[in-house]
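Sequence only, no structure available. Ideas?
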Amino acid sequence: MMETVDSLFENALERYKAGEEPANLIPVFKQICDRAPKSSAAWACLAWLYLLNDKPTPAYKAAQKAVKLNPQDAQSRVNLAVAMLETGQPGVRQHVDQAMQLIMIDTEMRDEIKQSIADGVSRKPDWKSLERVKSWLFE
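Reply:
I predicted one. C-alpha cells follow.
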C-alpha cells in the first residue's frame, strides 16, 4: 500500500523535528512535491532543507513555487528572502516586508517564524543570510 501524501509529509516532518539530517529528507520532500505539486507547505519545506544543505539555487526555485502557491505564507517569504540573499538576487526587501506584514497581524505565525529561525540557526550556526532576515523582521 502506498503512503498518502499527507502521511508521507507528516512522517517526514517528524523525522526533521527528531533531528534527521536535511540531506536525507530532501529526496522525501522532492517526492512529496512531485505527488502534490500544489502543496505550498511541501515546497516551503523543500526550500528550507535545500537552504540548510547549502543549495541556494534549488532553494530559490522551491521557495518561488511556495510563494506563488501561497503568497500569504510568511515562512515561504522568509525562505525566498534567504535564498535570494544567498544567490545574489535583487528584490529581497519586498519579501521581507511582506513577511513582516504577515507576522504583525498573526501572532501564531510570528511565533512559528521565530521558532523556525531559531531552529535554522541551531542547525546551521553562523548562517549570515538567515541572521540578516531575522534582524530585519525582529529588531
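DSSP finds eight helices and no strands in the chain.
Hope that gets you unstuck.
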